[in-house]
Design goal:
The complex is a heterodimer of chains A (652) and B (276). Chain A is of the alpha+beta class. In chain A, 25% of the residues lie in helices and 32% in strands. Chain B folds into two domains: 193 residues, no CATH class; 60 residues, SH3 Domains (SH3 type barrels, Roll). The chains are: A alpha+beta (652), B alpha+beta (276). The interface between A and B is large, with 109 and 101 residues.
Chain lengths: 652, 276
């Protein structure tokens, strides 16, 4: 059932092969423990406090010491539950005799009021008496601040309902036995948007789990989970005979789409993996001593374990999610699902025209309060209305029960007994499966004529003018009314004429993500365009360079012909080849067809005295007049033409 | 002709940005009627006349967010503060006059400036004459004329080309000025996000616990900056640079968070104390 029994079993059933060194160690221990070898076992029990109220817990401490300490087992008392919360063990060796003392602490949780007698563990131990008086309740915190709940496999559910049983299979301990995650939910059929309380429990095996690395996380996109309670409840439970520390988070679950859905929760944690002594190869080769050194506390102290991060998931929980009916849906339905009651009030039953008074609507009950919304008064004759603000006061830590109060500043525009029309609120009741609507009673308020300095305010709000919705006036509007300050009118500058409509929020665009996206997108677009242009330029440069290389290749055969002509002394062929080479080169550079590179074009672009123009002239002369050149002239013209080509290439 | 096209291109980009801005603003105002400087100012006046200075100051401060230079708001705010026994507003002249216009207007001006500056710089880049020769959208043959650009010989086309580039540079500079104004205003507005108005006399203590010894009492209508929060308490600094923890329920932020919404809050994660 618990650790001490397990150790005892290990002690008596393990077999060991004795080595000479172990004989020596055993002899030494025997010498040390000799004086206490035959001392009688002593058992003491005490309970603190011995008087509690129902909902609280007492602490039972059982200590056994001696050379042959008996196994400590929790007492069996009808109406009381015993949960082990702590254990300590001490072993002393004196003159070869082993003396051990074991202390186990139990939390005693009463299930009913009355006087309970807890029998002693041994015949010589006096029974203990625990008096449990009625009172408290399920929310009463047990003494010591530890919210103990439930017994083996049935932890309490202060949120989801203590009467909610855990279905079979809801507790599935991880394969290594270190932890489990489970859900406690009151119902498995719900409507879209309906909030239902849920308890999320993470059980961690004492001594095995080193740390929880985060809160439970919801798997899947069909549900939303409200904010988890900041501090989980903590309790000790025995599950399958092993002690677990159970952390319980309270929250509310809501489905976002209809259908047959399932969900799981998972949580990351770090487990401690023990490095057990080699069988038969312990320090002493003695079962008893090895058990001591294999004790988790001993190993944790001396670091004989490694840590590993794992994720433990809960078994899938099935839900049937129904769609909200479209039929009979009220026009002002805002998505509220639950059970609500409404009431309204005014901050004052009399006021001057132009003075603001606060209209309050209280919506209380249970349900998804984040969807509880109303426009309050709007388009009402004789009243100038402003946008309401809402304030939610939860009655529990998950915000399932509570009251949402809407406050709306309203200003009467006309004196006399004015009536504030009734307010309406609609919601969907998941129990009846129908929409419900509540209407408050009309309120009356006596409006006295405005002071002279209030005239501008009224002037800006003529009857029939659409109401100007605007400011989120603080919730404490009426609390400070008349409490401080004195009315001051004459010193104030007059009201402004209200034109047009304002924005929905005072939060500047700079700090709204949707608006931050616009300049960011512009920056990205311009950066991209800049990059694109630069890339285009680079590509154009590469293309031009390639074209120049191509031009050189095209001109090369003509240059070779030119060289051959110089060897043959054929001036006509020489200058014709030179002109063709230059034409192809300049055509590429000037983006013209080669046949359009005429002497006139060359004169226009390069001037009449250029070398290229001279080559073009000589080519014509040689073709028609039979020009003759010496070998030296051929050589010089060849150099000049090649230099022209290379110079133009360099410039381009 | 080409330079005219260039200027038309930049103008279209600017008009496009401005059109988008106007369209978004129009849509917003239609979908969510609400805050306007005049409405808040008038409400502040109403509260001031009915002897509720904290609410008056709150609404004046909110009006001043939207119209920081409005003399009526400044005057009435000063009047209410004086009549409530609050000291004159502290801070340097620069800090008190750091804001010049409605932040949303400046935001859109900044967006417009960014669009104009970006388009102008891009256009300048496109008209850049690379050292090699004539390529690019508005390259030499069109804008500069038929003369060789590399020769540097100036003609009418060349002068117009370089003139257009100068215009683009000036437009880009103006755009950057608008962006700088928006950035400046966003920095100046940031301080408003932490400011709250004290609604009731609030004892400020040294620690955020119930029953702690109060160090001083913050009067109602005082504007304080919230520096930290813990449970139901907020660490505030008042106009005299005094710091203390006050109940959060006594404070109302000048710039409230998003208005009441039917969108549920996103689940928040809470990491429990690890059982080490």
């Amino acid at each position: 059932m618990h650790i001490s029994q397990s150790k005892r079993w290990q002690w008596t059933t393990r077999r060991r092969v004795t080595t000479p060194w172990q004989w020596v160690a055993a002899a030494a221990l025997g010498t040390l423990l000799a004086p206490v070898a035959f001392s009688e076992p002593q058992v003491t029990e005490r309970i603190e406090p011995d008087k509690i109220t129902l909902g609280e817990a007492a602490q039972l401490t059982i200590a056994a010491s001696g050379t042959d300490t008996p196994a400590i087992t929790p007492p069996m008392v009808a109406g009381l539950e015993f949960v082990a919360v702590g254990q300590s063990q001490q072993v002393e060796s004196i003159n070869g005799v082993t003396h051990s003392s074991t202390t186990i602490i139990y939390q005693v949780i009463p299930r009913q009021a009355g006087v309970f007698t807890i029998p002693g563990m041994t015949a010589g131990t006096q029974p203990l008496v625990l008096t449990v008086s009625p009172g408290g309740g399920r929310n009463a915190a047990p003494s010591g601040g530890s919210a103990l709940s439930g017994g083996s496999g049935s932890g309490g559910a202060p949120n989801a309902g203590s009467g909610t049983p855990l279905p079979p299979g809801s507790t599935r301990v991880a394969a290594d036995g270190s932890a489990f995650v489970r859900l406690r939910i009151a119902k498995h059929e719900l409507y879209v948007g309906e909030a239902i309380p849920v308890d999320i429990q993470v059980g961690t095996r004492d001594g095995v789990v080193a740390s929880l690395n985060g809160p439970p996380v919801l798997n899947g996109d069909a549900f939303t989970l409200e904010k988890l309670s900041s501090q989980p409840d903590r309790s000790q439970q025995i599950i399958d005979g092993k002690p677990f520390t159970v952390f319980t988070w309270h929250s509310a679950l809501a489905a976002v789409k209809p259908g047959a859905l399932s969900l799981t929760m998972e949580t990351p944690l770090t487990v401690r993996i023990r490095q057990a002594m080699r069988p038969g190869g312990g320090l002493f080769g003695n079962a008893g001593l090895d058990d001591i050194f294999n004790d988790p506390a001993f190993q944790n102290f001396f670091g004989a374990s490694t840590e590993k991060e794992i994720t433990v998931a809960s078994p899938p929980t099935e839900f049937t999610v129904l769609e909200l009916p479209v039929r009979d849906r009220p026009a002002d339905f805002s998505g509220a699902v639950g059970h609500f009651t409404v009431s309204s009030e005014l901050s004052d039953d009399k006021a001057a025209a132009g003075d603001p008074i606060t209209l309050r609507l209280h919506v209380s009950g249970s349900g998804n309060f984040d969807r509880v919304n109303t426009r309050m008064l709007h388009d009402v004759e004789h009243w100038k209305t402003y946008a309401p603000t809402a304030k939610f006061q939860p009655d529990d830590e998950i915000g399932y029960h509570g009251e949402k109060t809407f406050e709306q500043p309203i200003i009467a525009t006309d004196p006399g007994t004015q009536s504030v029309p009734p307010l309406e609120f609609s919601w969907f009741d998941p129990v009846t499966g129908h929409y419900a609507q509540a209407r408050t009673s009309p309120l009356t308020v006596a409006i006295t004529p405005a002071a002279p300095d209030n005239a501008p305010a009224q002037a800006t709000a003529p009857s029939g003018t659409p109401p100007v919705t605007a400011p989120a006036v603080t919730a404490s509007a009426t609390a400070s009314a008349g409490a401080s300050g004195t009315p001051q009118g004459d010193a104030l500058r007059p009201d402004h004429v209200e034109r047009g409509r304002g924005s929905d929020t005072l939060m500047p665009h700079y700090y709204q993500p949707a608006y931050v996206a616009l300049p960011s997108a512009l920056l990205i677009a311009f950066s991209g365009a800049w990059f694109w242009v630069r890339r285009g330029e680079q590509r154009a440069r590469d293309t031009a360079a390639g074209r120049r290389g191509e031009t050189s290749l095209q001109a090369e055969p003509h240059l070779e012909t030119m060289e051959k002509a110089s060897v043959l002394g054929d001036a006509a062929l020489f200058f014709r080849s030179a002109r063709t080479a230059l034409q192809k080169h300049l055509a590429s550079k000037w983006r013209l067809a080669p046949d359009r590179i005429s002497l006139d074009e060359v004169d226009a672009r390069l001037g009449t005295g250029s070398v290229v123009a001279r080559v073009f002239q000589l080519a014509d002369e040689a073709a028609y007049s039979g020009l003759t050149l010496s070998a030296a002239d051929f050589q010089r013209w060849q150099q000049l033409i090649r230099r022209q080509l290379s110079e133009h290439e360099a410039h381009s | 002709m080409r330079s005219a096209r260039l200027i038309a291109f930049v103008s279209l980009a600017a008009l496009g940005s401005w059109g988008y801005a106007a369209h978004a603003a129009e849509q917003q105002s239609q979908a969510h009627p609400g805050y306007s400087a005049a409405t808040l100012y008038n409400l502040g006046n109403s509260y001031a006349r009915s002897g509720q200075p904290a609410l008056a100051v709150l609404n004046y401060e909110r009006a001043r967010v939207l119209a920081p230079l409005d003399p009526d708001i400044q005057a009435n705010l000063r009047q209410v503060r004086e009549s409530s026994g609050l000291p004159a507003e502290s801070g340097s002249w620069l800090s008190r006059h750091s804001r010049i216009a409605n932040p949303d207007t400046l935001y859109w001006l900044g967006v417009l400036g960014l669009g104009v500056a970006g388009a102008s710089l891009l256009a300048r880049r496109l008209t850049k004459v690379p050292p090699s020769s004539s390529h690019g959208v508005f390259a030499a043959r069109g804008v500069v004329g038929s003369r060789d650009v590399n020769s540097g010989r100036g003609d009418l086309g060349t002068r117009r080309f370089f003139g257009a580039r100068r215009v683009l540079g000036a437009v880009a500079a103006l755009g950057f000025v608008a962006v700088a104004l928006a950035v400046w205003d966003s920095a100046a507005t940031a301080s408003l996000l932490t400011q709250s108005v004290v609604m009731h006399p609030s004892p400020a203590s040294a620690s955020p616990i119930q029953g702690a010894e109060p160090l001083f009492t913050v009067p109602p209508a005082e504007v304080v900056s919230v520096r930290d929060e813990h449970a139901e308490f907020a660490l505030i600094r008042d106009s005299q640079d005094r710091e203390g923890w006050v109940a959060r329920g006594n404070l109302t932020p000048i710039i409230p968070e998003a208005p009441t919404s039917i969108i549920p809050d996103a689940p928040r994660s809470v990491i429990p104390a690890a059982p080490r």
